[in-house]
Amino acid sequence: xxxxxxxxxxxxxxxxxxxxxxxxxxxxxxxxxxxxxxxxxxxxxxxxxxxxxxxxxxxxxxxxxxxxxxxxxxxxxxxxxxxxxxxxxxxxxxxxxxxxxxxxxxxxxxxxxxxxxxxxxxxxxxxxxxxxxxxxxxxxxxxxxxxxxxxxxxxxxxxxxxxxxxxxxxxxxxxxxxxxxxxxxxxxxxxxxxxxxxxxxxxxxxxxxxxxxxxxxxxxxxxxxxxxxxxxxxxxxxxxxxxxxxxxxxxxxxxxxxxxxxxxxxxxxxxxxxxxxxxxxxxxxxxxxxxxxxxxxxxxxxxxxxxxxxxxxxxxxxxxxxxxxxxxxxxxxxxxxxxxxxxxxxxxxxxxxxxxxxxxxxxxxxxxxxxxxxxxxxxxxxxxxxxxxxxxxxxxxxxxxxxxx
Length: 405
Known about the structure:
Layout (H helix, E strand, L loop, with lengths): L10 E4 L2 E4 L5 E5 L7 H14 L3 E5 L3 H16 L6 E5 L3 H7 L1 H6 L2 E4 L10 H14 L4 E6 L5 H12 L7 H22 L7 E6 L3 H14 L3 E4 L5 E2 H17 L5 E2 L3 E2 L8 H12 L8 E4 L10 H23 L7 E5 L5 H7 L2 E4 L9 E5 L2 E6 L4 H17 L2
Parallel strand pairs: 3-4, 3-11, 4-5, 5-6, 6-7, 7-8, 8-9, 9-11, 10-12, 13-14, 14-15
Antiparallel strand pairs: 1-2, 15-16, 16-17
């Protein structure tokens, strides 16, 4: 596999998490609780962290939210959760950081949107205040430009320049340029105010896949800041997953991106952790990182009219992921393991042999036996009514013998 790596000589520390500078791509997520609710927000941060989120962003939009941040931080420390929390500021961040210094100190990073930091004459002074607070408290900043809240002053300036050209460019092209320029000019201003390059992360998010790819390709060619990737407002379910994966996979394959977030709209009442799992699986399937043993399973066909192999694959995958918080320290390296759960004789034995451990279940009309392969060698043939339980025990023994101390 050939992957072009974008060279960034420096890294940004977000808490204890290293972003850029050759570090593995970092998985981020964001809470959707009312930040003023300390218990709910701390619990969701812990839930996201257990799922694998290495940085969690929270909304800091009111005085009540800002006042709650130190309590959230302390609650996390008491419960043994050291995941860095990032403050998401719009419109009034300069006031909140000034009035609540304990909030400014507790946060591991500030997120500033150049389009929402202030309007007109107030924009530059308020942006300056935010950067000065970052310098005072030695915090990194993500300058996050969004297509939906683009700095209109930058866009207007580029549109005026474009109208004077012999061959004016279309509006989408000018908008792309404005998004990138807003990020770059804001970063340059932050450096002028004393914020080091090792304290700056840039993002330029938009909801269109092709536009996002074009924007980040342009941005990465014009700077060496650490970059945060994400398709904003990706949507719900498979649409959001596919759109995010399509955009981010192309960029990461080109070496673009140091930290990612999958901005899924969760279904009502469902866990926020799906966006973390999708981010991890995207990185793992592309070979960038490993987070949990991967289950290889076939889609099924007319040879597999029973849904037994589907249930077994689902159960094994859920079991492996549920065990990872324990196994991560107990069995180092287990996250790179592959388990195959196959449904018939066509590809079953071959895929099972290629995995670390695999089982080939009988298809329709086949002999009701299930050979198990470990590191390419058949070790046992299972039969009867307890194949699932016996295979899980075999997986557990394999993990203990191959990854245990």
